[in-house]
Specification:
Structural class: mainly beta
Number of helices: 1
Number of strands: 35
Radius of gyration: 22 Å
Distance between the termini: 42 Å
Helix content: under 10%
Largest sheet: 6 strands, antiparallel
Strand order of the largest sheet: 1-2-8-7-6-5
Oligomer: single chain
């Protein structure tokens, strides 16, 4: 039975909900479900990125509700009451407009999202851990904030909160880093210049930065000429100790902004039309903590393959991992459905690495790689890190798909995920009715999963 209490505070709608939950159900095809909590019912007409953050004994969920209004729900892990706050932002049909969230060193919450070449949408709580005190800020440094896309928060090991975003459109965008000063509660540029600047000719599509096992930040990116995703080209890489000072893999200092003329950062110079796409590049590591950049492009026969590049003996050594007789001939603008993907390379046994892949025609698997040569020794089945009951679509509406978001925080026991269902992307265009019924948005606690193949 739901017990609801509505009241208005700080120009946001607050809803306190106590709901039933399910505990400890086993599934022979995956890890045990330790608990399930319904957060809300949400719009299911198209996918948009939601966010889950667990910090200590507090948990926060950022999402778009049944009316597509940006909402933050919070609870204490010791009980099942969700406090829900509607923020003054409503999503349309653009699947780029996901939500990101962070908690700074003082406990204040930061939320940004619902932006695709649009003015900055940014909220912050006035009080630590109190979602009822969210306030619309919509400003950080006050410049290059009118055409924002791809917001991301990064929490540095020293506690500094970094905000990373693109200013401008595809083919004409620049990426900036801001840093938050918690005492005066103000933002400033981490460094004055943009990280990447392709002028009016192209823009960078980065993967990362991620903090590697060597204590360095690693980032790879592709350049893209236009909104057409077929115009991706030229895979590049850089690294940093502090996100402020950047260098090449060989240790040569990089002067910002990075532009397409910088040849020292190039990993693979495949040109436009060569099969690179900005959702397919990842950074993983071997047992020596050496970064390995993986991506896909066309081979000499014009087929789509997964490639891996590692710095060896003064140069990038590129190897092809797959041997598929298929060409993913993608193109156009808007959010598309991916046919081929591969995760970052991870550690396996002694002298071995592993990489999970998914292919629309040939299925999914895990390559077990020889660490020295990166050759595929054999293929194992994917060990699903979710119970099969969570993979099964519950909605009877045609073409519905399961969406899952990992926890951006860290739980003291088990691991939390978000689960809901939507239709697939539609190139960011409106769909004609009828629309699917609302989907149940759940937080689910699973037993820990080591992520290793059987």
């Amino acid at each position: 039975m739901l017990r609801q209490r509505r009241y208005l505070a700080c120009a946001v709608m607050v809803l306190v909900v106590s709901c039933d939950c399910i505990f400890a159900t086993s599934d022979s095809d995956g890890p045990t479900i330790l608990g399930r909590w319904q957060v809300d019912r949400v719009w299911a007409g198209h996918p948009v990125g939601f966010y889950l953050l667990t910090v200590g004994n507090r948990q926060y969920v950022a999402y778009y509700d049944a009316d597509r209004v940006m909402t933050v729900a919070a609870r204490d892990l010791s009980h099942n009451n969700w406090t829900k706050v509607q923020l003054d932002s409503k999503v349309g049909w653009d699947s780029h407009n996901g939500i990101v969230m962070a908690r700074d060193e003082t406990g204040r919450l930061h939320v940004a999202g619902n932006m695709h070449v649009q003015p900055l949408v940014y909220f912050r709580t006035a009080e630590p851990d109190d979602v009822t005190t969210f306030q619309p800020m919509h400003r950080m440094v006050g410049r290059e904030e009118d055409r924002c896309t791809y917001p991301r928060f990064i929490l540095r090991p020293d506690g500094a909160l970094i905000f990373f975003y693109r200013d401008g459109a595809s083919g004409r965008g620049r990426q900036f880093f801001n840093v938050y000063d918690a005492d005066p509660q103000t933002w400033r540029r981490l460094f004055d210049q943009p990280m990447w600047d392709g002028g009016e000719e192209m823009s960078a599509y980065p993967s990362g930065p991620i903090l590697g096992p060597d204590g360095w930040w690693h980032v790879c990116w592709m350049w893209r000429d236009t909104p057409d995703c077929a115009t991706n080209h030229t895979l590049c890489y850089a690294q940093s100790r502090d996100l402020e000072h950047w260098q090449t893999i060989s240790g040569k200092a990089i002067f910002l902004p990075i532009n397409p003329e910088n040849q020292d950062v190039i990993v693979d110079g495949t040109p436009v039309g060569g099969g690179m796409i900005n959702v397919g590049h990842q950074i993983g590591f071997d047992h020596k903590s050496r970064p390995i950049v993986t991506y896909h492009r066309y081979d000499e026969a014009g087929r789509s393959q997964i490639f891996a590049a590692r710095w060896e003996e003064g140069g990038w050594k590129i190897r092809v991992l797959s041997n598929w007789d298929y060409r993913w001939d993608f193109g156009g603008g808007g959010s598309i459905v991916g046919e081929i993907s591969a995760g970052p390379i991870r550690l396996a046994g002694s002298g071995l690495l592993q990489q999970e892949y998914h292919h629309g025609r040939y299925g999914s698997g895990i390559w077990i790689l020889d660490e020295k040569t990166l050759a595929v020794r054999h293929v194992r089945r994917v060990t699903d890190d979710l119970p099969s009951v969570l993979r099964k679509v519950e909605s009877p509406f045609p073409a519905m798909q399961v969406r899952v978001a990992s926890d951006a925080g860290q739980a003291s026991h088990g691991r939390y995920i978000l689960r809901w269902e939507t239709l697939p992307p539609n190139r960011d265009r409106p769909r004609d009715p009828p629309y699917p019924p609302l989907s149940r948005l759940e937080v689910i606690l699973l037993e820990q999963h080591d992520g290793l193949p059987d």
